Amino acid sequence: YKIHFWRRKDLANQPYQPTVIFFHGGGFIVGDVPSASAFYSSIAADKGITVASVEYRLYVILIIIDNYLITISRAPKFPFPAPSDDCISATEYIINNAEDLNVDREKIVLAGDSAGGELAIVTAIEIKYKMEDFNFAGLVPVYPCMQFLTHRMQSFEENESTGTGSELMRFERFEGHSRNVCNQKISYKVD
Question: How much is the pTM?
Answer without folding.
Answer: 0.71
